[in-house]
């Protein structure tokens, strides 16, 4: 009798472990389900032209989501990334069309690489401002980045009094004519923006999994006070994640202005919500301390496939917003269920070892 009881005991634990595996793979499963659904329901969804367009849309969201993942893992939030996208696009447009007048009777013009470096520096600088407000002035991340959202959006409007910078084709004389390749060029059959995403994703994944900096980011999000007592320079870590998030937003601003060959100050509105959604769908915990870059990339694909598929099916933009909101809520609920199940399985394992 005692042997029969012992053999039957692992059954619930085995079921719990199987459910835990399914919950951990939920984002990938969701991507397969969503992709399969639209492959049948949406006309021309699997066409090569649509795949290219969708990959570009996914890349834009993935850039922001990667930066957002670092911020959320550290225990923060960045609501300003959409506005940084718009502002950085306007900075790129201004540099291409007008250059910089230092006030000595001549104007400085820049080539494509210089424009990209300046715009990336602007994005990182805005991220540094967010980090300063949060670490030095003790402003809550939500409030600090919300304020920066409005400041950056207003600054983008001021660049052109709310008008578009058109015809960003560049000038061969200054070396800026290659700017359009960022958004429209391709290499080995893949858009340049996808190669840029791969590079950023590899660097971010390496930082998060293989470097002390990555471990410190997780430590700060998991237990900030404990990390500080262990010698982690918490303020520097927070400064880094917000600067990295601003840098990712600047890249998106460059790509969009290059794709459209124009810059508009309203570009990037609500982009921050898609970035947060992709990170949460990918398993990043809003309470901090947990998340993976790979999961975030898959989450960005889920959001991208869902958005493009709904558009191709002719679903109203209002319903698209409702569906995205429901997806985010479902992701958070499932994440909470996973954490509770993990705790229960851990307790069961400890009890089994105790016996």
Automatic annotation (TrEMBL):
The chain crosses the membrane at residues 28-46, 58-77, 83-100, 112-133, 139-160, 181-207, 239-262, 293-311. It is found in: Cell membrane. GO terms for cellular component: plasma membrane. It is a multi-pass membrane protein. InterPro entries: ABC_transp_permease. The keyword Transcription does not apply. The keyword Transmembrane helix applies. Keywords: Cell inner membrane, Cell membrane, Membrane, Transmembrane, Transmembrane helix, Transport. GO terms for molecular function: transmembrane transporter activity. This is ABC transporter permease. It comes from Paracoccus siganidrum.
């Amino acid at each position: 009798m005692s042997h029969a009881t012992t053999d039957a005991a692992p059954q619930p634990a085995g079921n719990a472990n199987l459910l835990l595996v399914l919950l951990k793979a939920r984002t990938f499963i969701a991507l397969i389900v969503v992709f399969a659904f639209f492959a049948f329901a949406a006309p021309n969804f699997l066409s090569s032209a649509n795949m290219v367009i969708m990959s570009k849309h996914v890349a834009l969201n993935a850039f922001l989501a990667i930066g957002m993942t670092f911020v959320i893992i550290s225990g923060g939030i960045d609501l300003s990334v959409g506005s940084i996208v718009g502002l950085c696009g306007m900075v790129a447009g201004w540099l291409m069309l007008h250059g910089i007048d230092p006030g000595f009777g001549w104007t400085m013009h820049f080539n494509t690489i210089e424009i990209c470096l300046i715009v990336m520096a602007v994005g990182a600088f805005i991220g540094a401002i967010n980090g300063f407000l949060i670490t030095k002035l003790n402003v809550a991340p939500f409030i600090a980045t919300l304020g920066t959202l409005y400041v950056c959006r207003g600054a983008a409007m001021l660049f052109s009094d709310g008008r578009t910078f058109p015809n960003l084709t560049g000038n061969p004389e200054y070396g800026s004519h290659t700017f359009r390749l960022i958004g429209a060029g391709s290499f080995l059959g893949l858009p340049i923006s996808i190669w840029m995403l791969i590079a950023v994703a590899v660097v971010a994944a390496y930082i998060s999994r293989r470097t002390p900096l990555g471990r410190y980011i997780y430590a700060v999000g998991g237990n900030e006070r404990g990390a500080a007592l262990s010698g982690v320079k918490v303020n520097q870590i927070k400064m880094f994640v917000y600067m990295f998030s601003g840098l990712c937003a600047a890249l998106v601003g460059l790509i969009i202005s290059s794709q459209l060959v124009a810059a508009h100050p309203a570009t990037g509105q609500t982009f921050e919500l898609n970035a947060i959604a992709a990170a949460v769908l990918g398993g990043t915990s809003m309470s901090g301390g947990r998340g993976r870059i790979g999961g975030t990339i898959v989450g960005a694909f889920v959001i991208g496939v869902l958005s493009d598929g709904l558009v191709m099916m002719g679903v109203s933009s209002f319903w698209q917003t409702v569906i995205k909101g429901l997806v985010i809520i479902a992701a958070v609920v499932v994440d909470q269920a996973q954490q509770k199940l993990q705790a229960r399985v851990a307790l069961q394992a400890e009890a089994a070892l105790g016996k």
